[in-house]
Amino acid sequence: MEIRLQKVIAGTGLASRRKAEEWIAAGRVTVNGKVVTELGTKVDPEHVHIKVDGKHISSAQPYVYLLLNKPKNVMSTLNDPGGRPTVKDYLRGISVRVFPVGRLDFDSEGLMLLTNHGDLAQTLLHPRYHVPKTYLIKIKQVLTEEQIRQLEQGVELEDGMTGPAVVKKVKKAKLNSWLEITIREGRQHQVKRMLESVGHPVLKLTRIKMGPLSLGDLGSGEFRYLTDREANALRELAEQKQASAENTAQQAPKPKRRVSRAGWARSKKAKVV
Ligand code: URA
Q1: Which residue CA neighbors atom 7 of ligand 1 most closely?
Q2: Are strands 202-210 and 176-183 parallel, antiparallel or unpaired?
Q3: Which terminus has fewer CB within 10 Å in the chain: N or C?
Q4: pTM of the model as a whole
């Protein structure tokens, strides 16, 4: 069956469809040894040899993206010198070495992305890219409208003012209440410190969203692979963030950041764990 070339490349997990189109237009893709720059080109992937930058697309280690619902009292790292449980304990059956994208406190729970796509992880983690993260939190008592406004506009913490946040009331009980808070920074214990600064300690914290990803009804301690749609949305987000950062860098009279070529997962890292 004939399929558009960019779809075949994107289907390997190497790049988003948009990125694959850029590679094709830039003359980096060959089909049976010939450079193809025509975006409408259709190929039968079973019967042609496709290379990007001289490398056969099937020889690339595919990228793996996992979404884990980290339970409470589990380290968000892959190992812990203190012998506490880690997220690795929950990745049974995964033979590719994946790394957590960001951290959650030991006593926090919820959405964690793990991947072997190093460039993407770096982009999502870089403070300059401001990927939104939403937390469902249970706090002591109830916030006043003024406190909500303060949190949304920024509060003074010991490491400086926080950026804008969005706070949504979820529900209220006698002694405590539930809120959703979305922030675009990732400082240590940031949500807990923000709430403490307005006098309402956090009693429970669950990350429910990160960029285009949602925890949904994934059970505590369970993981799943991202869908193609989610993986593409994530790659597109990372590409957009990088592109807008490059535009800004070009406008400002600063040295240009070196951008590594998006592409192949390094098979060196793809050890069996
Ligand atoms: N903010 C916190 O305070 N803790 C987390 O685990 C994540 C965000």
Answers
A1: 104
A2: unpaired
A3: N
A4: 0.76
